[in-house]
Amino acid sequence: MNEKLVIYIIYTEMEKEKTENIRNLRITLVGLIALVVILFIIGMIIYKPEPFVIQGSAEANEVRVSGKVAGRIQKFLAEEGQRVERGDTLVFIDSPEIYAKLAQATAAQNAAKAQDRKAQKGARSEVIQGAYEMWQKAEVGVDIAKKSYDRVQHLFEKGVVTAQKRDEAEAQYQAAVAQSAAAKSQYEMAKNGAEVEDKAASLAMVDRAQGAVQEVEAYLKEITLVAPISGEVSEIFPKQGELIGTGAPIMNIVVLDDIWFTFNVREDLLNNMKQGAVITVKIPALNNQEAKLKITYIKAMASFATWKATKTTGDFDLKTFEVRAKPAETIKDLRPGMTALVIEK
Q1: Residues 144-149, mean pLDDT to the nearest whole number
Q2: Alpha carbon distances (Å) from 211 to 58, 106, 112, 274
Q3: CA of 26: how far to CAs of 16, 31, 36, in Å?
Q4: Is this structure's pTM higher than 0.70?
Q5: Contacts for 194-200 with beta carbons within 8 Å, 24 or more apart?
Q6: Distances (CA, A) of 141 to 49, 145, 232
Q7: Which tens digit of pLDDT belongs to each residue from 253-307?
Q8: Using CA of residue 91, residue 92, residue 93, residue 99, what is the dihedral sign?
Q9: Percent of the chain residues past pLDDT 90, beyond the cut
Q10: What CA–CA distance (Å, rounded) separates 107 from 30?
């Protein structure tokens, strides 16, 4: 009886131990499963891909103000952030060289005008009078030679003088006529003045000198620079008193009335971005204000902006497109450089 009791006790202890082991194993398995599930959930949270956000920025037209002449900044009449209107004076440039060139060009113009007046006026009155007297003297010689020739001819016809004497008288008469014609030509030339070609040449020299003066005067206007457009002065490059060269930029004017947004979008994200389509964006700088934009421009960017595939299979290179969109309505307080995030609908 005692042996059976001992065996029963031993068997009971073994069953208890076996049940305990099974229960511990189950607890361990449940713990492992729970740990795996927790780790899986944590991994999903950590490695969950973030949604791709299409981001752009506001841009505006900028006009660079620069001058055609070299000089020193004398005075600014506008400062950064100031609103200016088209035609407003912005800066004065001190350029003594321009005034010196203007004096030279004016002097050359005066000299050319004097030469032109001389050519148009002709010879001096004393020269004209002298040429006229020489002509009249030659005319008197013609008259005397004609009378002498007529007398010799009359005597020749009567046989008093020889033919040689008659020929000599005729030759003297012809020479006197030629001399008179030459004297008259000299008088006419003095009276008429310079040749037509000389007058035209002198007038052309006047026009050339006038053109030089106008050129310098045009440069002279460039020492006072005015605003070519209405806008806001966004940046001033030199300081007052600094020396600037020809064409050097002095300031930028941004046109705040003409602002658009530019987005660089990978081509696989262009599904809802078509020419003329309307997209919705939020602007963080304006308290996440939402705005409607109309797409006006889409163009593929250069090869350097191509997105390269990282996998050997299943992926391919994707081009990046520049997308421009203008606000459908005026956005208050919008400034160039502000970020815009596309809201997926």
Answers
A1: 78
A2: 47, 10, 12, 55
A3: 15, 8, 15
A4: no
A5: 194/119, 194/120, 194/122, 198/119, 199/116, 199/119, 199/120
A6: 123, 6, 90
A7: 999 888 999 999 888 888 888 899 999 999 999 999 999 999 999 998 876 655 5
A8: positive
A9: 28
A10: 108
Number of C-alpha atoms within 13 angstroms, CB side, residue 165?
13
| The predicted structure's pLDDT at residue 113 | 80
Q: At how many degrees (to 10) do helices 163-192 and 125-157 cross? A: 160
Query: For residues 262 and 281, is the Cβ–Cβ distance under 8 A?
Result: no
Q: How far is CA 41 from CA 29, 81, 114, 139, in A?
A: 18, 53, 101, 133
> Which tokens go with 241?
């008193």
Query: Which class would CATH give 94-220?
Result: mainly alpha
Where b means 16+ CB within 10 Å and e means fewer, 31-62 reads eeeeeeeeeeeeeeeeeeeeeeebebebbbee
Residue with tokens 């600094």: 242
End-to-end distance of the chain based on CA atoms, in angstroms? 86
Q: How many Cα atoms occupy the beta-carbon half-sphere of 74 within 13 Å?
A: 13
Average pLDDT (128-150) is 75
Q: Measure the CA angle with vertex 176, ends 171 and 177; round to 5°.
A: 100
Average pLDDT over residues 316-337: 88
Topology of 55-63+255-342 in CATH? Answer: Elongation Factor Tu (Ef-tu); domain 3 (2.40.30)
pLDDT at site 3: 64
Give residue for tokens 């050339």: 208
Spans of all domains in the chain: 55-63+255-342, 94-220
The CA-based angle 155-156-162, given to 5 degrees, is 120
- pLDDT digits 0-9 by tens, 216-267: 888 888 889 999 999 999 999 999 999 988 888 999 999 988 899 999 988 8
Alpha-carbon dihedral 24, 27, 28, 31, rounded to 10 degrees: -160
CA distance 88 to 69: 19
Residues 301 and 321: beta-carbon distance below 8 Å? yes
Percent of the chain with pLDDT over 70: 80
